[in-house]
Structure formats: structure tokens, C-alpha cells
Amino acid sequence: MGTVFWDLDGTLTDPKRGITGSVVKALRELGLDAPSPDNLEWVIGPALLWSFEKLGTPDPQTALEHYRVFYEDKGGMYDCTVYDRIPEALTTIGARHVMHIATAKPHAYARKITAHFGLSKFMAQEFGPELDGTRNDKAELLAYALTQTGDDPAHCIMIGDRHYDLNAARAVGMKFVAVAWGYGGADDLSDADAHVNTPGELPGIVDQFLA
Q: Are 157 and 176 in contact (CB under 8 A)?
């Protein structure tokens, strides 16, 4: 038995409509021009404060506060879907291995989403940054998670869709499995230990690495 750390956005769920829609509304609330949702897919994955900085907003923190109104208070966080065949993959993998969430989304939001979509029942623990930005860095988050679980990273796998996930796994000594259905299209994931095109491939890959 080993341990699997799952990314959330772009790996277990497709959050595009909720995240990009809330970013657009936040920018417009500040009187700023907003890219189309299709041109904002790159914001899915990293910490949103960093994304607002990259978008050139004069006050990224204020933009983030407006984003949170639309995303949390007005229900944008639930405007997402669980990828097809993910529940089946979680059921199979969870029967043989311990599983946790490790997401760049604040855990205050992530836990509501996983509970709403029936994913929390598969997870032993769920890790994400604090709302004040503590542990926004994914490598720092994974390192913290390991202190809480007591796992040996040599017996762990990180599964995700972005280079943030890959780099974090490498930083703490975990193997990394890259999924093809998320939002890492422009990212360099060639250094992943394995690549999968469908959720159905995941149980076999996980068993191979955690045998």
C-alpha cells in the first residue's frame, strides 16, 4: 500500500466555467478589460493572487477579494464538473492505497467542492493553502502535507495536470503522473514518470509505482 496525492482542478474536476467566469467578473468589477474565458485557461492551477498579478491588475489583492465574492458567495465554485470515469478510478485506487487532496485552491473552498461532488469520501485528508496565502507554493504545500501524514515520499505519487504539480512532486521526492485531460497543454510535463490519457489508465499506473 502506498499514498496518492491528487491535484483537484484539471485533474479530478473541470472548473473552467466557475474559475474563469469569476475572474472575468472580478476584472469587470474593477473597471478593467477582461480576456475571454477561453484565453484564461492558464489561471486554472496556480494561486489566483499570482494570476491577477500576471494579468497586470493594479491591486491584485483587491481583485482576489472581488473574485472570492463571485466564486464563493455567489456559487461559482460549484460551476464545475467531475471528469468522466474519475469516481471509478478513485474507487479502484482507494481500495488499495491511501489518498489525499493536494491543491493550490484554498482548502476552505476545496473541501466544500469535494463534499458537494462526492469526492471527499475517497480522501483521508485534504490539503490546500490558507486564505491568507500561506502555502500558496505547491512544493511547500506538499512538504507540509508529508509532515501531517508521516508518509515517506519515496512511497508516494502526485497526480496532476500542471508543471506546478510536477515541480512540487520533484521538490519533495515523489513520483509524478501527468494527466492529459486538464489544463497543462502548454506546460512542459515531459519529465513526468508516466503520462495517462484517460482516468481508466490510472489504477494500473499507480499499482505499478506503489507495488
A: yes
Domain boundary among 36, 51, 78: 78
Answer with the one of 45, 78, 111 that is the final residue of a domain: 78
**Cα–Cα dist 102/128, whole Å:** 6
Same domain, 46 and 104: no
C-beta separation of 67 from 48 below 8 A:
yes
Distance CA 141, CA 126 (A): 11
CA distance 64 to 50: 10
- pLDDT(186) > 90: no
Q: Look up residue 160 and give its three cell numbers.
A: 496532476
* Distance between CA atoms of residues 206 and 211, nearest Å: 8
Q: How far is Cα 14 from Cα 47, in angstroms, rounded to an integer?
A: 16
pLDDT tens readout for residues 19-71 = 999 999 999 999 999 999 999 999 998 889 999 999 999 999 999 999 999 99
Q: Edge-to-edge, what's the strand order for the sheet holding 98-102?
A: 125-127, 98-102, 3-6, 156-160, 175-179, 194-196
Q: What is the pLDDT of residue 172?
A: 98
What is the CB neighbour count within 10 angstroms for residue 140? 15
Question: Which residues form the catalytic set?
Answer: 7
- Are residue 66 and residue 90 in the same domain, yes or no? no
- From the number of C-beta atoms within 10 Å of its C-beta (0-12, 13-18, 19+), residue 69 rates as middle
Chain mean pLDDT for the chain? 96
91 and 172 assigned to the same domain = yes
* Domain ranges, residue 8: 3-14+81-209
